[in-house]
Amino acid sequence: MRIFLGLGIIGMVFVAGCAGGVHNHSGNSSANTSTPAAMSSFTTTDRAWIEITTAMDEQLVPMLDLVDSHTGTAAARDLGRKADASTKSELLDLRRLHDQAGLPAENPHKGMEMPGMVSSSQIAHAGALREADFDGYLKKCLRDHLEQKERLALGEKSSGKEPQTVSLASRVLQEQGRLSALVE
Hints:
Helices cover 70% and strands 2% of the residues. It is mainly α. Strands 1-2 form a two-stranded antiparallel sheet. α1 crosses α3 (44-65) and α5 (74-100) packs antiparallel against α8 (163-183).
């Protein structure tokens, strides 16, 4: 069921137009003005996964930035540090793939409401919490985030074609498992 949900979300993204071209200076639409050969290895699935996963990670970072000032436990601090390091490392790889795929600078998934996508209202709510209340809410948000990223990575791993992207999805799955064990 989870795999189908992840694939369904990626499918919905395709319908929403994630594979649209970029406009060059003359106003004509083109697939990419830089490296067409490199871009051709990225399928619509690969591109959608890069964009959605990037948006999910970018929107998680502000929540993780609250951990040190809002938690009262060493365990939550440790979880926050590990999740932050993992997320920021993954973002470096995603941004590199984003550039290679010739994706637009503005991510169409930023701020999107979907399961596991940390919203600005969730960050504001977390900012008002302290200690045990914050820790519980952080774990809930992180658990939702990890579960959705697992679904999406499984979809990319089974349907993606670009080797670098599929490889990153495999690494994401390994990391999700490691972090999920800390959230329990």
